[in-house]
Amino acid sequence: MSDKRNNNGNSKDEQLEQFRSDERDKHMTTNQGLKVSEDEFSLKVGERGPTLMEDFHFREKMTHFDHERIPERVVHARGYGAHGEFELYKSMEPYTKAGFLQEPGSKVPVFVRFSTVAGSKGSPDIPRDVRGFATKFYTEEGNFDLVGNNMPVFFIQDGIKFPDLIHAVKPEPDTGYPQAASAHDTFWDFIANNQESAHMMMWLMSDRAIPRNLRMIEGFGVHTFRFVNAEGKSHFVKFHWKPTLGVHSTVWDEAQKINGKNPDFNRQDLHESIKNGDYPEWELGVQVVPEEDEFKFDFDVLDPTKIWPEEDVPVEIIGKMTLNRNVDNVFAETEQVAFHPGHVVPGIDFTNDPLLQGRLFSYTDTQLIRLGGPNFHELPINRSVCPFHNNQRDGYGRQTINVGNTSYHKNSLSDNHPRPASEEEGGYVHYQEKVEGRKIQARSESFKDHFSQAALFWNSMSEPEKVHIKEAFSFELGMVHDKDIRQQVVDMITNIDLKLAKEVAENVGVTAPVEGGSNVKKSSPALSQENTSHKPDTLKVGVVLDQGFEGKSVQQVVDGLKEQNTHPVVISTTLGKVKGSDNSDLEAEATFDTGDPVLFDALYVAGGPDMDNAFKRNVSYMVHEMFKHYKPIGATGDGQKILESVNVTGEAGVVQNDITDSFLTSFIEAVAAHRHWDRQV
């Protein structure tokens, strides 16, 4: 991690070490340190008498239990976090004076929390939803929080509408459902009547909303921020996280089944990947626009419902983040971490994006109620690695023991300490933007084009992605009971693409438009997941074996998959050793009950010479599901009979061969592709 020190001279890891508690080989005590002699029975009057109030251990234990839950986040309640580090590739000195962006090769510790937005803390991992991607940089100048999402735009343009959006997408108040879903009347009623959401809806209906895992999502700062350099010059900037594994998703049927088979699928994948040393990595990119170019585009650079197309404003890669340590305690770290877009360092400032302006108020207000008071910054996960000194005192959860008799500014008793720092001493100075105008409640005309970039997104999609978007709209609107709302949404889609609107209208039983569509013909290849990294690294391959499998050749395939940094998992009828034809054996880690095909990225069927009907039925089901979800399928030896019986031989992404080396080369190529969309399903 970093060698940056906190006020006790410790690194972030060492700082957290002070708060870790390992209870192994320890005597039980009360919270005051008193050793406890009994933890099974409360103090009573006789064996069958009432419990006595003087049993302080019982009262302390029960009182603490009664207060163990804090209010869950209203949004982003379902989250999972990890520690890591950020390493700078390239100095940003021409653009910003932020200390952690100056020296190539320098590193700072980070903590990242991924989350879904709409669902409660107990909801599943893969609903159709936005994913939060929040990063806390522990820099020597203070904490910088980049609080973003896996989509670069948002539903609304002004923070005052955020409560309305969330009220609409949350479970409907008269029924209390649906949970973690946007497929219901109130949400789509909001969308139809707030059409600034049109661009965001294209993202939400795309595959980006159902990621395969958290290691394969992009991250975006969403808003336009400012870089300010040492000379005081300002540039507009947008932040991007680019995953080194590429951006990959599930298909909708698969996502629904995963939520049933393993609702913790994404968080478990993140935890196990880090535990196994497959450290997730993202490169940090920035789009930079000189302030004098603010009005040179056909969109408003401050509009949070707009992207800056990468073909117009290239993303410059400046560093890499690696997540390399799991949390020790989910509550103490993941749940108590407090992010805030207003946590910035010198050289990073805000713009007049009205959604960002609203967030600058909302986040502090939220932490006060969720974490019980103003001292949430003193929790170990939130503490900066540099000292903090001010005249703030007392309040719930205060840990700092301030010495001295002054807690005000200015003073003479303490020689006016703590005192403000000048800009030369590292003090934060807001960018002196010239602002003038009348006080009004209105929106700039430049914010009122809601459909051009929605059309740009649609034009940029591959054919399979377009099919998925059409199916997503059809599913979501198919769950809407009010026909008028369905009609309103179709009318809105007409402004994006006429053919899409007609097909959705037919699917959801409303009147199809006869004219409309967009004049936008431009596309942005960077928006399509088809143009992302494709490699087999870290993918999980199910290996289906029965007793008597061809030992030597199967072992070669398994070893070859491991060499490509995939993770083969043997699946059989029961757990334990599966004997090969040469008396070798492989350990079955999953059964047909626990190793459902939706949990794997690819399937290799080796089978065995004596497969019974039950075994064949189970494997046939696995092959059918893998095939339906466009995933790679391979078979050698007796396993080829299964592929023939299911009638998938010769299809795209289906590989079979008795020559091990030839099979392995072709199968790894198929696995690297992730999905085979030209398959006839």
Any overview of this molecule?
By secondary structure, the chain is α/β, with parallel strands linked by helices. It folds into 3 domains: 79-378, Catalase HpII,  Chain A, domain 1, CATH 2.40.180; 451-530, Catalase, four-helical domain (Hemocyanin, N-terminal domain); 536-672, Class I glutamine amidotransferase (GATase) domain (Rossmann fold), CATH 3.40.50. 27% of the residues lie in helices and 16% in strands. Strands 1, 2, 3, 4, 5, 6, 7, 8, 9 and 10 form a 10-stranded antiparallel sheet that branches. Strand 17, helix 16 (639-646) and strand 18 (654-656) form a beta-alpha-beta unit. The longest helix has 17 residues, at 354-370. The chain is globular and about 90 Å long. Its EC number is 1.11.1.6. Residues 520-531 have a biased composition (Polar residues). It comes from Lentibacillus salicampi. One of its GO terms (biological process) is hydrogen peroxide catabolic process.
Annotation keywords:
heme binding, metal-binding, 18 strands, Class_I_gatase-like, Catalase HpII,  Chain A, domain 1, Hemocyanin, N-terminal domain, oxidoreductase, iron, Rossmann fold, 681 residues
